[in-house]
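Aspartate aminotransferase 1
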Amino acid sequence: LNLGVGAYREYLPIEGLAAFNKVATVQGLSGTGSLRQALYDSISSK
């Protein structure tokens, strides 16, 4: 893996490869609670 700074590594940093940082996923335990939290988060982020 060429990081562009002259250092080669066999593994990626904890953030992963920047080209793939476009999608995020979340897993919840309960259906209704997860829907409520998703709605709350979408309203509060605006």
